[in-house]
Design brief:
The chain is mostly helical. The mean pLDDT is 87.
Length: 106
């Protein structure tokens, strides 16, 4: 998504490129597929923590698709800073879940 946004293409071309990257990034699994996998394979508490992170990512996608929005735009920064903090928390939660019970962090 960020690579598509950085190309600074105009209007609908930008929007389509960002949405395409969100749905079918060839280097990564698309976010919706990852969320579906978590719904199937992860414990409920991890899936429940992942849902808001997914929604934040979608909101970032939609904002990046707007003409004139850049990575420095305050509105974008206000959105992605909590996203990355919540993503980090989710990753820690997932790592902790993989640890044997006696090794879980507090």
């Amino acid at each position: 998504m960020t690579m598509a946004a950085a190309r600074e293409e105009p209007g609908p071309v930008r929007t389509q490129a960002i949405h395409d990257a969100f749905l079918s990034d060839p280097q990564h699994s698309d976010a919706k597929s990852v969320l579906r996998e978590l719904a199937i394979a992860a414990p409920d508490h991890i899936y429940e923590a992942a849902v808001p992170v997914y929604h934040q990512l979608r909101a970032a996608r939609d904002l990046l698709a707007v003409d004139g929005v850049t990575f420095e735009t305050p509105q974008y920064q206000q959105l992605v800073q909590p996203f990355f903090a919540d993503l980090d928390s989710l990753q820690r939660l997932m790592r902790d879940d993989l640890q044997p019970p006696e090794r879980h962090r507090n």
